[in-house]
């Protein structure tokens, strides 16, 4: 059953290919963290996916060690532990104080206390094949959590109609990785490896379909932001307040810049009262906000 055994050449081939694809997936967030490094800010990115991915990798290493003969599982998950740890450390360096505290809490609760509890329980409460089965189902559960994590990104894409935070290449890589690891689990007859990758394949396909559907719908979020920034200007250059009075009370009808209106504290209350009377209108025209982004 061992993935490294040449008695199962196809299993070895798929396991090796899975290592290569999964390793490239682990490197996918590098542009994100380079952006964080350059800006010295986490810019609203969340640490939870990386903490959960680290925990999942730790569990798979433990499972592979208990089962024995699963060198291909150990190699990729060991790489995952190192890379995810680097991501989390970088996040802690540049995150705001509140995000740092939250990240530190979930690392302590999940990766230290949670893993320690699972380690002790499975080591002393279960023996033989029962230990492997128990660990296998635990690994399946948390692998599902890793695959479900992109649901927040899927929701964001649907809500904003922007695929800026869901690169197609990453979705394709994750889908291919799920297919390869499913076949590997199938060939070595390990349902705990195969099952979660069915879900991974499903979510990967959904992400790619959404990307194709939304990629030309609207500009990227950053482009929209830049467009808005380009139209920003001092309020007094764009906004006028038009107080339209009745024809016989035109002395109260004035057009002034906002800055002048703000300082005109001596305007008679009679004009305000008349402006609120039936047939009167108060209009604020903001040309900066009238631009429609198509």
From TrEMBL:
Supply the alphabetized keyword list: Cell membrane, Membrane, Repeat, Sugar transport, Transmembrane, Transmembrane helix, Transport
Q: Give the Pfam families listed for this entry.
A: MtN3_slv (PF03083)
Q: According to the lineage, what is the superkingdom?
A: Eukaryota
The signal sequence is none
Q: Return one GO MF term.
A: sugar transmembrane transporter activity
| Residues in coiled coil | none
Function description: Mediates both low-affinity uptake and efflux of sugar across the plasma membrane. Mediates both low-affinity uptake and efflux of sugar across the membrane.
Member of which family?
A: Belongs to the SWEET sugar transporter family.
Q: What name goes with this protein? A: Bidirectional sugar transporter SWEET
Which species is this record about? Aegilops tauschii
């Amino acid at each position: 059953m061992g993935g490294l055994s040449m008695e199962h050449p196809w299993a070895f081939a798929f396991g090796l290919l899975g290592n290569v694809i999964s390793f490239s997936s682990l490197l996918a967030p590098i542009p994100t963290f380079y952006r964080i490094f350059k800006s010295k800010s986490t810019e609203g990115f969340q640490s939870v996916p990386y903490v959960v991915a680290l925990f999942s990798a730790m569990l798979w290493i433990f499972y592979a060690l208990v089962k024995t003969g699963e060198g291909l599982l150990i190699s990729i998950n060991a790489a995952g532990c190192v890379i995810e740890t680097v991501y989390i450390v970088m996040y802690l360096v540049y995150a705001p104080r509140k995000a740092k505290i939250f990240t530190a809490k979930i690392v302590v609760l999940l990766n230290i206390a949670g893993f320690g509890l699972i380690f002790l329980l499975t080591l002393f409460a279960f023996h033989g094949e029962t230990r492997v089965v128990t660990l296998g189902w635990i690994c399946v559960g948390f692998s599902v959590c890793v695959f479900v994590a992109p649901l927040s990104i899927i929701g964001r894409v649907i809500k904003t109609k922007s695929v800026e935070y869901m690169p197609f290449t990453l979705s394709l890589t994750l889908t291919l990785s799920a297919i390869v690891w499913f076949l590997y689990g199938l060939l070595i007859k390990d349902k705990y490896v195969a099952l979660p990758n069915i879900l991974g394949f499903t979510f990967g396909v959904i992400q790619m379909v959404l990307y194709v559907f939304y990629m030309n719908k609207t500009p990227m979020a950053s482009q929209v932001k830049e467009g808005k920034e380009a139209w920003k200007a001092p309020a007094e250059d764009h906004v006028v307040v038009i107080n339209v009075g009745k024809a016989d009370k035109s002395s109260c009808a004035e057009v002034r810049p906002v800055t002048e209106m703000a300082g005109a504290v001596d305007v008679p209350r009679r004009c305000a009262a008349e402006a609120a009377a039936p047939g009167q209108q108060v209009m604020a025209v903001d040309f900066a906000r009238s631009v429609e982004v198509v």
